Amino acid sequence: MSERGEAIVRIFIGIVSGILLNIWKIVVAILAIFHWIYVILTGERHAGLAKFSNQYCTQDYKFNRYMTFVTNERPFPFNGTGKDVLPVSIKKK
Predict the structure, then answer these.
(1) Residues 13-62 pLDDT 10s
(2) 7, 38, 52, 88: which has the fewest Cβ within 10 Å?
(3) What are phi and psi of 11, to 5 degrees?
(4) Higher pLDDT, 38 or 93
(5) How far apart are CA 50 and CA 36, in angstroms?
(6) Residue 75: which of 85, 61, 86, 87 has the closest Cα?
(7) CB-hemisphere CA count at 13 Å for 70?
C-alpha cells in the first residue's frame, strides 16, 4: 500500500483503536486504585493486575508509534496484543 493510502487507513484505525484504548485506560485507572489498596493491605503486588496494566502500556506505546508514522505495524485490535515492550518486574519473597 502506498504511504498516502496507509495515511488514509490510519484515520479509521486511529478512531477504532483510540476508542478501545481509552476504554482500556479507564479500566486500568480503576484497577490501579484497587491495586494500591491491595498492596497496602497485603504488602505485595498482584501479578495479574500488573500484567494487565503492562499490556495496556505496551498497546498505548504501539498505538502512538503507529499514529506518528514511526512504524507501519498496526496497533491493537488490528494486530493482536503481541509481546510486551518491557516485562513486568515483581520480586518474589
Answers:
(1) 999 999 999 999 999 999 999 999 999 999 999 999 999 999 999 999 99
(2) 7
(3) -60, -50
(4) 38
(5) 11
(6) 61
(7) 9
Residue 12 C-alpha from the chain's centroid: 18
As a whole number of angstroms, the distance between CA 72 and CA 66 comes to 6
Alpha-carbon span 40 to 25, nearest angstrom: 23
Report the helix count and the strand count for the chain, using DSSP H and E: 2, 0
Cell numbers given for 17: 483503536
Contact 60, 27 (CB under 8 A): no
Structural contact between residues 24 and 69, judged by C-beta atoms closer than 8 angstroms? no
pTM for this model (two decimals): 0.81
For residue 57, the one-letter residue type is C
